Write a sequence for this structure.
DNA sequence: GTGGTCACG
DNA sequence: ACGTACGTGACCACT
């Protein structure tokens, strides 16, 4: 039996889960919900639950969690509990219920995960549920003032509220996985791990290290690995340290140490394969729904920049990009395809427009290869743009690193490090400094825009994005110069990251609404910052792509006339775009 | 719970 | 003289 509690007045109502209603109350409630604004704390969760289980519709709703996100964008503080403690006199109202739960679990020896919330007696639950509703209402009355800020109001009404609807559908659509492929991949990965471990133990020194310690060596333990590499094997540390000052054993270090011993490469192998098996395959398989889809979370309030975050059963925003194993298991149903749309260099596109830098906008207008065109301009290369990749690959690489580095506020040191890593050739700090200098000579309006905005951030301690999101940076007043400059870089990056991801999100929201309004069968199942993933029936592919392109490139104020933001479409049976079958054979 | 590492844009 | 690239989430070992 499911139910809820409700706090109600003339302006709004708010509810929480509880027990018991009959058809009469159901009809009354539906009438109420239709006429009044219903306030949720996290509508994506509770409203979706109600609509799914009881068939209720909520034509108008508010969300105190999202209102609070507008008041303070820093993640981690948006829970009902925390906010009640901070903004109302009833901060500890949940205590009696949790005490009851603790006692009950102790008496019956029940583990946390196995506790059934339905066992809570009505008398205990009712106070908690009623207080949840009351707290939500009190928060609403406080938070609604934020609507007096027209920029934040625009974000709320045009991104967060419609975004909630969109994400409910996106999460409900679920990610289509192919079970057979998951099992094939799981087994293949386990075999690879076994082989890699066996290879590690071929090294006699590893076996002796183990004997010496009297316990088996765990390659996943950084402490044990450090001891093996630096104390026992006597390899020379690279100088790279962890946050706490210990010698690092991360991938970069291990790659360098591989010149001195065969052990580091084995560890790299084991780590990479364990990661894929533990974090992805083993995690996905037991959580699939009966329709072989995985329903995970996308959150509107998880980042300071306005990007989405993903969490829960699987973080869809960090699937391995280049290894086809996991992506290949995301496979469209028969008669369907996976359609993956990507924005191309969206953040730079946004920067060009915001800075009103004609030279940079011209790069987008010219339509050639982006980084080649940039290199051609910055270094005045005596060849055609099409020849840059072949004739001046180093220059192209440097220009690319500078382009991205600038978006983050990187200095010569970081740029030189990055180019050296990417190209495998030493690129000095001085070369980096010269390149940055050349770059800004070519794109001088961009430099001025960066300078102006950094000054604004430093002076005001906040900044607004193009679409009206606010980034508060009180640490610009810190006495610590490192913290201060980090705040300023953050604020600058916010301007481009936020607007770019909003272009993607607004496009997806409109596409989602269009799909519904036109009874299309296409199903958007994930957003990854600047891409939109969907499972699309074959006969709908042209229609879907055409409309999605339209909605993403639609002029929402951030468009270069004649050169809308670039969109890449990839279409195949699975999300690895065919690479999975090549790797594992054509039968799966 | 923290630190280290690694997955993504 | 020094630090110095933005934004995330998940898993593992260890305390």
């Amino acid at each position: 039996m499911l139910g809820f509690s409700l706090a109600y007045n003339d302006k709004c109502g708010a509810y929480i889960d509880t027990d018991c209603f009959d058809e009469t109350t159901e009809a009354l409630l539906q009438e109420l919900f239709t006429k009044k604004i219903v306030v949720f704390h996290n509508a994506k969760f509770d409203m979706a639950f109600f609509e799914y289980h009881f068939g209720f519709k909520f034509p108008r709703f508010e969300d105190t969690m999202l209102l609070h996100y507008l008041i303070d964008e820093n993640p981690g503080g948006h829970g009902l509990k925390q906010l009640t403690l901070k903004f109302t006199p009833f901060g500890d109202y949940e205590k009696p219920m949790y005490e009851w739960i603790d006692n009950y679990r102790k008496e019956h020896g029940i583990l946390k995960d196995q506790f059934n919330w339905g066992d809570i007696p009505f008398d205990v639950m009712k106070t908690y549920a009623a207080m949840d509703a009351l707290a939500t209402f009190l928060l609403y009355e406080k938070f609604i003032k934020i609507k007096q800020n027209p920029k934040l109001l625009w974000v709320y009404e045009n991104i967060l509220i419609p975004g909630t609807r969109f994400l409910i559908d996106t999460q409900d659509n679920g990610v289509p996985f192919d079970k057979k492929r998951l099992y094939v991949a799981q087994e293949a990965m386990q075999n690879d791990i076994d082989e890699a471990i066996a290879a590690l133990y071929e090294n006699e020194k590893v076996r002796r290290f183990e004997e010496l310690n009297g316990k088996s060596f765990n390659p996943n333990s950084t402490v044990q690995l450090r001891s093996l590499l630096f104390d026992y094997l006597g390899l020379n540390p690279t100088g790279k340290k962890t946050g706490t000052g210990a010698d690092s054993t991360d991938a970069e270090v291990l790659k360098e140490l591989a010149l001195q011993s065969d052990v580091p490469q084995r560890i790299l192998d084991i780590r990479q394969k364990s990661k894929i098996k533990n974090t992805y395959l083993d995690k996905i398989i037991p959580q699939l729904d009966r329709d072989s889809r995985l329903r995970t979370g996308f959150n509107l309030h998880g980042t300071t920049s306005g990007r989405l975050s993903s969490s829960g059963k699987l973080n869809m925003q960090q699937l391995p990009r280049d290894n086809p194993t996991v992506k290949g298991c995301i496979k469209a149903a028969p008669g369907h395809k996976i359609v993956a749309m990507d924005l191309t260099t969206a953040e730079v596109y946004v920067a060009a427009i915001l800075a009103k830098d004609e030279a940079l906008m011209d790069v987008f207008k010219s339509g050639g290869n982006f980084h080649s065109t940039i290199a051609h301009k910055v270094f005045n290369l005596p060849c055609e743009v099409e020849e840059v990749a072949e004739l001046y690959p180093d220059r192209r690489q440097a220009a690319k690193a500078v382009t991205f580095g600038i978006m983050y506020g990187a200095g010569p040191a970081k740029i030189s490090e990055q180019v050296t890593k990417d190209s495998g050739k030493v690129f000095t700090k001085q070369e980096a400094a010269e390149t940055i200098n050349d770059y800004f000579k070519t794109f001088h309006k961009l430099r001025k825009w960066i300078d102006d905005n950094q000054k604004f951030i430093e002076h005001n301690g906040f900044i607004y994005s193009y679409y009206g999101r606010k980034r508060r940076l009180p640490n610009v007043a810190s006495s610590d110069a490192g913290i201060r400059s980090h705040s300023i870089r953050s604020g600058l990056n916010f301007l481009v990251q936020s607007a770019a991801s909003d272009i993607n999100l607004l496009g997806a929201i409109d596409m989602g609404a269009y799909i519904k309004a036109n009874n299309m069968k296409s199903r958007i199942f994930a957003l990854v910052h600047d891409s939109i993933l969907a499972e699309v029936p074959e006969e709908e592919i042209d229609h879907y792509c055409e409309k999605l392109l339209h909605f993403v490139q639609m002029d929402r104020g951030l468009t270069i006339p004649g050169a809308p933001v670039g969109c890449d479409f990839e279409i195949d049976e699975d999300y690895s775009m065919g690479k999975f079958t090549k790797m594992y054979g054509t039968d799966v």
Observations:
- The radius of gyration of chain A is 27 Å.
- Confidence is low (pLDDT under 50) at residues 7-20 of chain A.
- Chain A has four domains: 3-148, 179-287, 298-346+502-584, 349-487.
